[in-house]
Amino acid sequence: MLNIERGEGEVRETKKKTNLLVARVASGKTQRQVAQEAQINERVYQNYEYDENEPRIRTAIRIADALGVKDVRSLWGGNPVRA
Question: What are phi and psi for residue 6, nearest 5 degrees?
Answer without folding.
Answer: -95, 140
